[in-house]
Amino acid sequence: MDRPTATDDASAAPAERRKYHRVREIFEEAYELIAPFFARENRWGNATLDHLAYRVVREQYPELSFEEVHILVVASKRVYTELEAADAAGRH
After folding, report:
1. What is the per-residue pLDDT across 19-55, written as a single tens digit (0 to 9) for each?
2. Which helix (H) or strand (E) holds 5?
3. CA–CA separation, 47 vs 26, rounded Å?
């Protein structure tokens, strides 16, 4: 009985584990559209306007599923928060 060896595994191409390819394609464009909703100066009652970001993404990309819209908004908010933190750290 033949068993796979380490060399067999190394030569095999890794399986694609990424999902949501459409979200990846449009991320930068969508991020530019919705980033202002996460800005501190645009908060309402000290709350971000995430619900408006969801609306804009659904209107701009009606082909996306609810899950894809959610992933896009959450990822955009994370990127925005990380960039803000990096910018704030650079100023000090």
Report:
1. 878 899 999 999 999 999 998 888 888 777 899 999 9
2. none
3. 26
